[in-house]
Amino acid sequence: MRPLLLAGFVACATAVSAAAETVSIDTATGSAELETAPETVVVFDAPSIDTLHALGQPIAGIPQPLYLSGIDDVVASAETVGTMFEPDFEALAVMQPDLIIAGGRSSAQVDALSQIAPTIDMTIWGEGMVEQTRARIKAFGELFGKQAEAEALTGDLDAKLAEAKEAVAGKGTGLIVLTNGGKISAYGANSRFGWLHGALDLPEAHPGLEDDTHGQAISFEFIAETDPDWLLVIDRGAAINADSQSAQATLDNPLVARSKAAQQGHILYLDAAPMYISGGGASSMMHTLDEIISAFGTSES
User: What is the residue range of the signal peptide feature (predicted)?
Assistant: First the structure.
């Protein structure tokens, strides 16, 4: 049922007390004035769910499927309110949330969701992802009265970034690839995964890659010719639990095998969901950094 058919519910859902305190926070579309400490919060953005969970903020409604691990308590307590692409507007109107958080895959639904309750777009994307993540942590801390938790979480993130940057230093070039069944795409410094280059000062094995959402389609020959010291691999199928050829099977190829990365045991298969599904979430970013620290920190320069 579309929100325009739910006018009676909407009037109740969007009522705001004249005495309520408000706060101005940064969002993906600019500054937003919101009532502080909203109680019933619905989130249609995986990175936001990740960060709010890290801050200890309860979430009343989430979409499914989510493909995120480590949030079992959220899944157990939150009501399912549709999918990222198709919110359940009737369920939302009955729930009467105080705030809806959209972003990424659900950002196209912001206008429709705004007819149910105040809705903000907290998309994190592309260049400057670490700065965006810090900004979202700060915004959520101010909105939910969790400034101390936000400061501590930012400190933890910055410490992980520093440790990973030190681990990467002097270890050569990197090429970030995403496999999708038997297909391969490469991602550069300005892409959705490019923060691994920019924030960690990891040199690009092939500068100038297209920064398209889906990356630049490449071949096994491209990997052999680029010859990276490190191959950082994200398996889309694994991220969404698809029944598809694994990244390991896709890259089991003679051309890939002769690259420096393969010869030196430097093909790093990253946990896919924290990069592909919840990239920019505070806990997800730190999880990936731990993988980088572990792999690069134990290798020889």
Answer: 1-18
